[in-house]
Design a protein that fits this description.
Bound molecules: thiamine diphosphate
Helix content: 25-40%
Structural class: alpha/beta
Largest sheet: 8 strands, mixed
CATH topology: Rossmann fold
CATH class: Alpha Beta
Number of helices: 10
CATH superfamily: Thiamin diphosphate (ThDP)-binding fold, Pyr/PP domains
Distance between the termini: 75 Å
């Protein structure tokens, strides 16, 4: 009899010892992992040459411990500086950060927008479940206005960040936003981003049934319906405007500015030439 544990990804991309995974029922995290692995499988056929970096939180658990690959699990908020260091030390590696909205946009927010400004050659996959899932569902800078959380039981009085727009304006080469029901689009976005240079940012809206949904919706399915009925593609949104409450999805920007590694190595070459000439 075959079981879910006979899946070909297990033992090749996923550690058998942690399967079935540790996420809550209904959590979107492993759908994201699945789309990512499908993209890698089609492009490269293995995790060789990849390094994954994650911080603290449920989303940070996608690569570590699940991925059978080189993974670095770092302090809360700090995956981007560690990923930057890895990429600078060995530019041949494919460096991917997978972590949550709290990890990357709250405590780690500073690193996020400077990495985009520098156009450092890493791919960041930010899983946005609208709250700090792991620690009990506290308010995050991505929690929608008015939404209830354990720390805002009467509703969130703050405007959330529009992270995709923020990344476009900070200078990222590639920015996309999807939800976990847009699995095919997500997979092709991963494929495209993996083959580009510079800073690439993919935000994935993903349900947190255990913390967020129970404060805001009666049924889990309502969030999936919400994703289906309230998303609008960015090209349409830019032409027609966005109604209140709609979520803009799609590719926000695709550009080919030189990544930091290219800029830095060109500068380094110039500096060495200059130094040699001065010595002659
Ligand atoms: C320096 C520090 N501050 C706070 C915490 C507590 N903490 C652990 S995970 C987390 C938030 C995680 O939220 P998010 O990144 O959105 O991930 P999720 O669990 O929702 O996937 C917090 C505040 C910590 N571990 N370290």
């Amino acid at each position: 009899m075959t079981t879910e544990l006979d899946h070909p990804f297990i033992g090749k991309y996923l550690r058998p010892e942690v399967m079935p995974h540790v996420m809550c029922p209904g959590c979107g995290n492993m759908s994201i992992a699945n789309a990512f692995i499908r993209a890698v499988d089609k492009l490269y056929g293995s995790f060789e040459n990849f390094v994954f970096v994650s911080g603290i939180g449920c989303a940070a658990w996608i690569p570590s411990p699940h991925f059978l690959a080189d993974t670095v699990h770092v302090l809360h908020g700090r995956p981007i500086p560690v990923a930057t260091g890895i990429k600078l030390a060995n530019p041949n590696l494919q460096v991917v950060v997978i972590s949550g909205d709290g990890d990357l946009a709250a405590i780690g927010g500073n690193h996020l927008f400077h990495a985009a400004r520098r156009n450092i050659d890493i791919l960041v996959i930010l899983v946005n479940n609208y709250n700090y899932g792991m620690t009990g569902g506290q308010l995050a800078p991505t929690t929608p206005l008015g939404a209830r959380t354990i720390t805002t039981p009467y509703g969130n009085p703050e405007e959330p960040f529009d992270l995709a727009e923020l990344m476009v304006h900070a200078g990222a080469n590639y920015v996309a936003r999807w939800t976990i029901i847009h699995t095919l689009q997500l997979e092709s976005s991963f494929k495209k981003a993996l083959q580009m240079e510079g800073f690439r940012f993919i935000e994935v809206l993903s349900p947190c049934p255990t913390r967020y949904i129970r404060w805001n919706l009666e049924k889990y399915e309502q969030l999936l319906e919400f994703y289906k009925n309230n998303t609008i593609y960015v090209n349409i949104a830019r032409k027609k405007g966005v109604e209140e409450g709609k979520i803009v999805i799609g590719e926000f920007i695709v550009r080919d500015r030189p990544g930091y590694i290219r800029r830095y190595s060109e500068l380094r070459k110039k500096a060495i030439d200059l130094w040699r000439r001065e010595k002659e």
